[in-house]
Amino acid sequence: MFFNINVFVLNKKLYISCFFKYRMKKIGGYILTLIGLVILASQVKGFEIILKYLPFLSTINKTYSLIAGLILVVLGIVLLMSSGSGRGKQLEEVPIYRGKNIVGYRRQR
Question: Among 8, 35, 37, 93, which is disulfide-ready with 105 (CB 3.0 to 4.6 Å)?
Answer without folding.
Answer: 93
